[in-house]
């Protein structure tokens, strides 16, 4: 890890690294951001279907947190039945290269990939 990111004697949560983790940490936030980056604009139920294992309540909480942190945009249409769409904000889009790097690292270091390298 870079020395400048977490200097000695500094509490991790008070660093840029800690701040970033506070925004994208948790079981579903990065998954939600992934689906929004792939589909650009997604409605709540579409997102629920994409993720599959997430409850309605948890998805609602995660979306509210991501919106409060300025990572996603919630657009509500005044119609009956209500229509709400979610998309990444510019701030959220700026995290996508980081998520892509994490994906690449995972592909290179997953068990099958490691076995191929070690042989």
Automatic annotation (TrEMBL):
Stored SUPFAM superfamilies: Winged helix' DNA-binding domain
Gene Ontology molecular function: any one: DNA binding
Pfam family name, one: HxlR
All copies of domain HTH hxlR-type, residue ranges: 5-114
Keywords, ordered alphabetically: DNA-binding, Transcription, Transcription regulation
Domain of life: Bacteria
InterPro entries registered for this protein in UniProt: HTH_HxlR, WH-like_DNA-bd_sf, WH_DNA-bd_sf
Name of the protein in question: HxlR family transcriptional regulator
Organism: Paenibacillus ferrarius
């Amino acid at each position: 890890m870079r020395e400048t990111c977490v200097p000695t004697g500094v509490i991790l949560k008070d660093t840029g690294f800690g701040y970033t983790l506070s925004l994208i940490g948790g079981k579903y936030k990065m998954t939600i951001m992934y689906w929004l980056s792939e589909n650009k604009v997604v409605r709540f139920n579409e997102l629920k279907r994409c993720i599959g294992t997430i409850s309605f309540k948890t998805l609602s909480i995660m979306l509210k947190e991501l919106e409060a942190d300025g990572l996603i945009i919630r657009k509500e249409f005044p119609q009956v039945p209500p229509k709400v769409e979610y998309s990444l904000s510019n701030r959220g889009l700026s995290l996508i290269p980081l998520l892509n790097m994490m994906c690449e690292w995972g592909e290179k270091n997953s068990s099958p990939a490691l076995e191929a390298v070690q042989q």
